[in-house]
Backbone:
């Protein structure tokens, strides 16, 4: 089947710059749309600040070569039953990725740029879908950590939450397996059903959106290789996604960059086991920067695999959770029910204190940056981002050219 | 040896009312001193509000009988090499017990009354002695909890802190053993040396003030009986104390009442393992009410013995500690160094914000209750108590008839 112009454009864009993509490229694609932006880049017509970013990948290649390369990527992805989705598609997790665009890239949170597009096996997000529960932790997990992750993944799935993680050994795999086993044979009870699945894994039409794996390599690859069957099962029961072109190897830095997508796709992140320098601590930090809740599971004080979790809790960077029952009481909905209004109320009545303060700090005319808002409202940036998400949900604020204004 | 009048008085007072002693009796003894108060009570001349409290214990007994009973208590205690100490004695931990007097008895913290006196084996507190580290937890501790308590007790002792606990199986015993073993044979490195030891355990003159056990039974008893040797060792290396007359049985309610003394004698309390309804959670609550720091040790989420610790941490009622190195960074000195003054400074310069606010709330004339101060300064009662302790240390506040005023 011949790829569409849009597929070519998305595949081409994903190959032209290494994530996290520089702000200039993000802004260019955002302004022109994927197809026009790709045509400009492939035709050598992009402005300098974009051309200089994509030069290492597209420099020296003609338009035809670039289009052929993109077509090959689409074809390879299709062999893995993966589709391409991007901003504007109905199954693009627009709301969940939005905060990645709001935090200042390359400053407080250098990995926070949203993806230009995604390769995806399995189901897509539906409009209004809530975020999931990220269950992350060490590859070298202990039997204890594996058990806790399996139970947490299982309980989350049973209660209709989507588990989000990587595909690594240890905690990642345990969380996915817990989720998959929990809903195995009882599809009607577990997982979350959206109303638009996009095109996806052919065998998954009757399944449920149980668990999502975000890869740090091409969608056509299984890393680690021993997890090929697990990754296939995740694609059947949920989704496997990647922002890397087919064939991409899981280079070390890609795990850290990938972690921002795990954090963004989840309402809350739970670190189950983490050594002092575990990459999952980076996921926790990103989640916090995105205004999401962070939790950690305690363990033996003598376990090197619990040191990172204990640090997070002790330093007040994560709440302590011992299992799903704790979480139920502590999870705050990402997009809370709109405040109820009585006649005569102002639209801002019923907002919580922090959200009100951010709304008050929005100027009556003109638009301001998140930074400026944080300064004016005297609130930390993650709180401002959380409040802006809520104001946007309620139609009280909007983003324009990277700045925020009242509607 | 014939007991002194003071010994008779202290022993008599300890027998005449069950701790926690009612405010009327505390105020009466505080006002008259132990000997006069005892004479009035034994002679049937105490005011009604005092007489009604002591009636169940002294009613129907004549002065001679009461004196003989007290003399017997002193003699039995002496057989256990225990002395009697009370307020005003140089080896009475006046500063440490003070907050027990400040919190409202029978309201927020019904067990917070200070003891009228103490039976003590081993060393006494020296003027200016800092509080110790309370290491508390379940009797039915796991091997893990025992190991953590032993290490914590040992490290605390090695770094010159006094361990404070009960004498029960489990965490109590492990903490004491850790402290005793740590300084065994290296007395010059461990423990804290005061400058006034009172009369005490004859064999302990060359030892150090390593660990303190607070009993919920008479000082002549060992409970549990299997801990007789341990209790003797604690008396040799530190101190064993009780506010119960000789022969008193360790009734269940006495453990809860006793816990307030453990909390008071410690600058910080660490709960190592605690089931959901463990008595050590009561010690933690009392410590917090006294304005002291509370910590808890995490463990396996599947361990019933860690549930109480995890609850404390999750609810923000305790900091997470994994061992002594954590504590070193978090322990705040109970009586911090006085602020340094330059010429022209006011005496209140250099106070922290909370302490300043409490000082500001003290009226220029007259005296007010802790309650009133808390209301006026808009601070929680434990914070006010902590601030008053500091102001008293700096000579900026004093207590008069249960109320507080500027000096």
Residues:
């Amino acid at each position: 089947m011949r790829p569409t112009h849009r597929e070519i454009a998305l595949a081409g864009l994903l190959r032209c710059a290494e994530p996290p993509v520089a702000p200039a490229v993000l802004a260019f694609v955002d302004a022109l749309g994927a197809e026009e932006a790709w045509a400009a880049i492939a035709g050598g017509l992009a402005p300098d600040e974009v051309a200089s970013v994509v030069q290492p990948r597209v420099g020296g290649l003609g338009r035809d070569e670039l289009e052929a390369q993109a077509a090959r990527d689409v074809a390879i992805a299709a062999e893995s039953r993966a589709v391409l989705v991007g901003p504007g598609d109905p199954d693009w997790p627009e709301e969940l990725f939005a905060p990645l665009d709001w935090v200042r890239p390359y400053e407080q949170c250098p990995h926070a740029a949203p993806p230009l597009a995604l390769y995806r096996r399995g189901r897509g997000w539906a409009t209004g879908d809530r975020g999931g529960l990220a269950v992350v932790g060490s590859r070298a997990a202990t039997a204890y950590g594996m058990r806790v992750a399996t139970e947490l993944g299982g309980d989350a799935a049973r209660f209709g939450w989507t588990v989000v993680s990587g595909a690594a050994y240890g905690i990642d795999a345990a969380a996915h397996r817990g989720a998959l086993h929990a809903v195995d044979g009882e599809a009607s009870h577990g997982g979350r059903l959206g109303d638009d699945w996009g095109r996806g894994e052919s065998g998954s039409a009757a399944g449920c959106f149980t668990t999502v794996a975000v890869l740090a390599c091409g969608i056509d690859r299984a890393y680690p290789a021993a997890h090929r069957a697990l990754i296939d099962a995740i694609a059947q029961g949920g989704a496997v996604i990647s922002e890397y072109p087919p064939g991409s190897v899981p280079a070390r830095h890609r795990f850290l960059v990938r972690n921002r997508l795990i954090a963004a796709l989840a309402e809350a992140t739970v670190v189950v086991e983490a050594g002092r320098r575990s990459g999952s601590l980076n996921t926790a930090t990103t989640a916090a920067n995105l205004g999401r809740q962070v939790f950690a599971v305690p363990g033996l004080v003598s376990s090197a695999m619990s040191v990172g979790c204990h640090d997070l809790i002790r330093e007040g960077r994560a709440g302590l959770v011992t299992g799903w029952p704790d979480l139920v009481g502590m999870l705050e909905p990402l997009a809370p029910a709109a405040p109820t209004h009585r006649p005569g109320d102002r639209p801002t009545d019923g907002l919580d204190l922090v959200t009100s303060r951010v709304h008050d700090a929005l100027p009556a005319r003109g638009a301001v940056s998140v930074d400026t808002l944080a300064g004016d409202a005297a609130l930390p940036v993650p709180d401002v981002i959380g409040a802006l998400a809520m104001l946007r949900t309620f139609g009280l604020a909007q983003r324009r050219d990277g700045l925020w204004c009242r509607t």
